[in-house]
Each structure stands twice: as C-alpha cells, then as structure tokens.
Amino acid sequence: MLNKLKKYLFIPATMIAGIALTGAFAPFKVWPLAFIAMAYLFYLWQGVAHTKKRAFSYGFIFGISFFTSAISWVYISLYTFGGVPLWLSIILCAMLVLFLSLFPAFTGYLLNRIFTPEHKFIYVIAFSCLWVLMEWLRSNLLSGFPWGLLAFSQVHSPLAGFVPIVGEIGVSWLVCFSAGCLVYLCTKTKVCFGVCALIVIFCSGFLLNYIPWSHTVLNPIKVSAIQASVPQQLKWDPDQFKNNLNTYSDLTEKALTSDLIIWPESAITLPLQYVDDYMSFWMNRLDKLHKNLLLGLPIQTSPETYYNGLIILGESQGQYRKRHLVPFGEYPFLYPISQYIIQYFDIPMSNFTPGDKEQALINLNDVFLASYICYEIAYESLVLSDFPKANLIINISDDSWFGRSLAAWQQVEIGQFRALETARFAVFATNDGITAVVNNKGDVVKQLPRYSRAILTATVYPRAGVTPMMWWGNWGMLFLVVGIFGVILVRTVSQRTSM
Description:
By secondary structure, the chain is an alpha/beta fold. The chain contains 15 helices and 14 strands.
C-alpha cells in the first residue's frame, strides 16, 4: 500500500518538474531549473521508474507538463488571431502537446529497454545521448519543431561558453550529463566522479567565454528598428492600409540619420507591385541620402506564387525569401489531409511558397546580412548555412500573432543563442516586441518595451571569423553523439551476450 502511494506521489512531482523546466527559459531565465528538472527525471528513470513501461509513462507526463506550459502560445495564435473555433483549437493544441510528449517518453523507454542503471557511467551517457537524439528528431521530423531545446535555456549560464563549439546538440548533452552527475552526487553514488565532472564542465564553460571567436570588420553601422505596434486586427484591415503606411513613414522620417532602417515582418501586407508608387518614393529618397530600408512584405512572382519575404531599398538592393514556413500558418501542411482544418483558418497569405535553400546574402556596402523571418532563427542548420560569410544577423518577425505570451521572449532567447553560436551581432525587428539588439556574446545591449510605438537605434559592429560550429555544424555534432551512443550500445550488447 505504501509503495503504491509513493508511486502515485511521483506523478504530481513529475508534472511540477516539467513545468519547472519552462522556468529555465525566457522570460524567467532561471537556468539552474534545467539541471534540477532533468536531474529529477533522470532520478526517476534510474531508480523509481527503471522498468521501460514506467519510464515511458513518467517521460510522457513530464513532456505533457513541459510542453503545455512552454508552448501555450500556440493556442493564442490559433484561437485568438487565427479564427479557429475554440473546440478545434483545443484539439489541435492537445494533439501537438501529446505528439511532442512522445519524445521524452520514448527517451525513457529506450533508456531502460537497452541499458541498466547499475552501469552508472554508461547509463548517464546513454541518457544524455538519447535525449539529444530525440531533440534532434523532434527538430527535424515532418516540419520540425525546435522549440524548448535544453540548450536554449543556457544562454545565461556558464555553459554558454560551449555554444560556439558544440552548438545546441552539444550544450543539451552537457545539461543532461550534468543533471545525471548531480543525481549521483546527491544519492552519494559515484561522488568523486560527479564532483569532478561538474567542476570540469562549468569551469571550462566559464573560461571558454573569453575566447574571441570573431573580430570587427569594416565600419560600425547605425541601425534603427521600427516597432510600429500596429494591432493585429488592424494590420490586415484594407480600410487601415494607408494609415499603417503613414505610421511607418512617420517613424522612418525620424530614423533617417541611421545607415540601415528595419521594418518588421509583413510591415506591408501587399506585394511590391501594389505599392509601387509608395516604394518608388522611398527608394529614391533613401538613395539620395545614402541610406537603406529593409522591410518585410509578400513577394509575388506569378498569379499563384507568393513568398514571405523581405527586401532592401535605397543605396543597396536585394531580397530574401523565407525558406522554412510555418505549418498551417503559411502553407497547408500535409495537404490534402489538412484541407478540413485549413478552411477554418482566417490567416491572410496562408499559402506561401518556400524560398530556395541557397540564396545570395543581402550585401549592405560589403556587409553581408544573414536574414531570417520569424521562427526560422530556431533552425540551426539553416542559420549555419549562411556562415562564415555573413557579418550580421537580421531577424524580422510579427509576434503579435501570439499575444502577451512567452513566444516572443523565447524567440529572442533563441536568437541570443545564434548570436553566441556565430559570434555575430543580431538585430531583432518586430511589430510589437521584442525589438532588440544582441551582441556577439549573446547579451542584449538595447531593447524596446513591448506594445509600444517606438524606434530602437543602436550601433552594431559587423564581424568576421569562424567558430567551430561553422566547421562541423549540426550534422557533425549529430554524428559525434551517434558515434558515442553506438560505442556504449555495442559494449552493452556484448556484455549481455557474454553473460
């Protein structure tokens, strides 16, 4: 009876641990919670829930709690702004959370199906490898959902020093390994090993922060990001279109002392040819002043082909077409299966075409811009494909789709990770926040308050240099983890065979 009671008490504790993991990410930024939450999950799997079925169950409960709290903004985008009925929004969100929760569930299942907790060293390595392999799978399966990766929570921790070297796979692995060592330390198992491992990991991360992976090239650039704070309900209203243009014009007039002015994603909601006179005026004006304007708008190349894109006007010219589109929001994912769902959406321009995987970087007076639209910044392989050529990161988005939720904060945190990973400055221009400038160390140097109509003006420094992640990239780290996992798997299987 007592054992059964203990078993059921672990369920609410697991739910609390999953919710606590959300606190490790922005806007809370309590990064130690990532180690505590993962240590608790590891403790369950190597002790209380060491059978594969029970490990699956606890992993599933942990996943439901974490993803429900971390990505609750999906519901807001569907119901509040997407026009999806309440019942369908709840079903879609529940399906997404349940699907994502399968990844930690199968991590626990495979861990205790293949390995045994008695082999402490191998078990903690297996735990770390399986977790990051599942994160990688989640980030790439179907359309991929690289949100809430453990690595992103460590932007402000000593492990940030590892980011330019091992990227998101490596940092997530180190979080898991450290969590396992913490459990061994607290349970007085492998105490010497746990202490030494934690000291080496955290001291190394701290010291690695001092390595200058990049250097300043060319002259600094004065940048102004326009945060127009146009309400989502008015942004797509045809009657408000001219008023919205006037808002951007008025704000831009105040920012003409800057070398580069940036408008957010879909600042103009019509393709270029429908606002030709307006764009020609600004193109001529900016060219005479030797200034540049980068703005988001739909790019139409044929009656049926639209891209979510950005263009640059003025002294420099060029464009970028979004490569990784948002399922349902920007294209009918798994069509025609999704046809029934899509008909309920009231999202304008929800049938975009993805841009080419390889696109020429926008050249701003010999400064090459790595441009991304909205959550593209979360895809490591996509970002790293633009480096080391790119000197500056530009990310435009419209997070008003997600209301007053965690989404915008989490997105900027991911951007901070990319700035660290590439050792480059990054500029984030959004409609209603978070508009910010991040330096090459991942620190926010300037930021506008959310939901305010304002201009962020700052000086950014184009940088060049090669970080280790630019050499071996996401795939290199994946092969390394697979190799480590393969070695311990072969050893485990051979030991069982010899018995």
